[in-house]
Structures are given as C-alpha cells and as structure tokens.
Design a protein that fits this description.
Blueprint lengths: L1 H17 L2 H28 L3 H26 L2 H15 L5
Amino acid sequence: EAIVDAGVQSFMHWIDQRSSVPLIQQLNAQADEWRMLEISRAKKMLAKGDPVEAVLEALAKGLTQKMLHGTLAELRSADPAHREQTMQAVQRLFLRQER
C-alpha cells in the first residue's frame, strides 16, 4: 500500500505540474521571438560595419529591456493594495539566490 500511495502521490504531482505547460510554452515562444528580433537587429548592425563589441552590447541590452519591460511596467502600475505582493513576486522570480 505504501508503494502504491507513493506512486499515486508522484503521479498526482506530475499531473499538477502539467497545468503550467501552456504557460511555459508561451514564455518560450515569447523568448524565441525576442531572440530572433534582436539577432536580426544585430545582423543589420554588423552589415553596416558597426563594431562587434557595440553590436554585442546592443544585443544584450535589447534582450534585457525586453525581458524586464513587463515586470517594470507592472511594478509601476501596481495598485497600492497589491504592490507588496507584486514586489515579493518579482524578488522571487528575478532575484533568486543560487543555493
């Protein structure tokens, strides 16, 4: 019975995690879109003869700005009643300390 219970719990945990798959797929698709846009922009800069260092800096900055834009907009527009929750969520998502 203990083995079956452990198996059932493991399966239920797996099923529960599957509910986040569509969101994970959307996040990956968005990141891929941003990556393709920034690579296209970098290729144009290189074709114009811009220095590689400047192109790499622009690529990194562009990706960073795209990744943080929604989060920063949410922090600025959060209503005061939910601001603390929003700030805590941002800290959990972006300021995680490696353990």
